[in-house]
Amino acid sequence: MTDPITQDSPVYVVDDLIGRDIDAYLDLHQHKTMLRFITCGSVDDGKSTLIGRLLYDSKMIFEDQLAALEADSKKVGTQGQAIDFALLVDGLAAEREQGITIDVAYRFFNTEKRKFIVADCPGHEQYTRNMVTGASTADLAVILVDARKGVLVQTRRHSYLCHLIGIRNVVLAVNKMDLVDYDQATFDAIVRDYAEFARSIGIETFTAMPISGFAGDNITTHSAKTPWYAGPTLVDHLEQVEVNAAHDGDKPFRMPVQWVNRPNLDFRGFSGLIATGSVRPGDTIRVLPSGKTSTVTRIVTLDGDLDQAVAGQSVTLCLADEIDCSRGDVIALADAPPQVADQFEATLVWLNDEALIPGRAYWLKLGTQTVSATVQHPKYVVNINTMEHMAAKTLDLNAIGVVEVTADKPVVFEPYVDNRTLGGFILIDKITNATVAAGMLHFSLRRAQNVHWQALDITREARAAMKGQTARVLWFTGLSGSGKSTIANLVEKKLHALGKHTFLLDGDNVRHGLNKDLGFTEADRIENIRRVGEVARLMTDAGLIVITAFISPFRAERDMVRAMMEPGEFVEVFIDTPLEEAERRDVKGLYKKARQGALKNFTGIDSPYEAPDSAEIHVDTTREQAEDAAERIVNHILAQWTPVI
Questions:
Q1: Which of 207, 217, 151 is nearest to 181 (CA)?
Q2: Residues 367 and 295 in one domain
Q3: Is residue 5 one of the residues assigned to a domain?
Q4: Considering 192, 389, 477, 502, which has the largest number of Cβ atoms within 10 A of its Cβ?
Q5: Which residue of the set 290, 552, 607, 614 is catalytic?
Q6: Per residue in 403-449, pLDDT tens?
Q7: Virtual torsion, Cα 316, 322, 323, 325, nearest 10 deg
């Protein structure tokens, strides 16, 4: 059978087993191994054309794709002009309109030996985040290079990211060999150039092959036009390469718990996808981070109980003991548990248009675990062209840097090089819910291992009871000049008159001592609030009623402080004053300076203020006097208290 486009490229003959014995056909495909791979490289290196060739030659094209191909084939003249194979795989209308790939397009096909999922990733630098998405689950990367252009910046960037993400099977596909007359010297020069770069980033081996995605050379069969090439065809290599998952079964048993399954009182199981290793009934397991141990009694699936479960299977484990285990925990073999820590070094690939804000709290999602985490200033960023480590204060879109990450509670993890599931994570913006970064954990920081929480005999409840009150944090927020400090001071005076133990933390006052090293950039504002939050938490441990008066312009940071406190302990008080009124008052002359450009990053002028969505107490200063507002706030707090006996 020949390709109607080139007239001389053999293709797979469709197996008629499906027509003769459907059960045998399904059984055959059920037991095929699966290879996930990614095509990447610079713009116009021919990624979509190559995938189109693979789909066409494997004859696994949907009817609508065939229709598109048939419609386009009418455009082919007697000269055998190019059919746009990208139309075969391009499911995004915007791509066709703009002529670029702007997202990851996943396609599925199979040969007689293996099933495949291929991710066609964009080549433009601004869509590096999409490439990272496609590579995150891949076992192999096909790095395409245009034979006319050689190794480019994006070739290096994508190769570095693939290696960073843990892809160890790399194919250097020197494409468009038909446009350089299948010249061996051109191919050899590109391979030498790439090999030098590959060694510098730690790629130990790769498979290089000369191909033409359009003409079909060395895709499914060896091309007579490259007699000097004795290596495998691309499809032969894809069929034979060993996938990463093949080694997962040899690693220690790890199963992140996705949910607790309890349909009735007689059954309690813990369900999840086994990441690595294997488990049998009778095995002693350990649940982390608690460290509790038990024994596996049953391995339950929809098809019945199993004698053994291995990596890649979704199962429900029943345990001999009623131990505390919930979503986010990890079940492991008792004698070979993973690590638990709350501070790490990691590599981050920043995926968001807005730069990293050091100190801001993000959601960190690792496996089934979700915790609040902050990122410190980068240790360095990587220059993709030179591999130089460069100093940086933040990470911008597509930047790759090494950072320290601190979580608000212990995380079960393993280094990414050992376990993708327990070593790879994403960061999520708490306000927008956008994924802002992908990360790979290296190791826990030594200080996290050496610093332990010291248990104390006198509890925070006992300290508060001695004072005859319940600890609270009254967090006043609002624009400069809104009246925060005035009302906060009145509230403290009223509580003091009632014999309550209080302490007022004022925004200006703490900058004379605790936070005098901080400026007014967004990052410094965040660190300012973080420090104040930690101080306020310590004061509530002492049983005090803490009153704070800070602009605290960002919801994420106010939510960060709320999360530090016990439930119900944080009371947000929004002092709502219109900008025009606050500017009219301008008690300290700050608005005037900001309008003149003498005061940068001033809230309300050239820095945003994010008003609370649902503050516990809302004070509209255009309708309520300061004295009345203070009285209402005190009454609100007193009404919430539980009598102390």
A1: 217
A2: no
A3: no
A4: 477
A5: 552
A6: 999 998 889 999 988 888 899 999 999 888 888 999 999 988 865 55
A7: 40
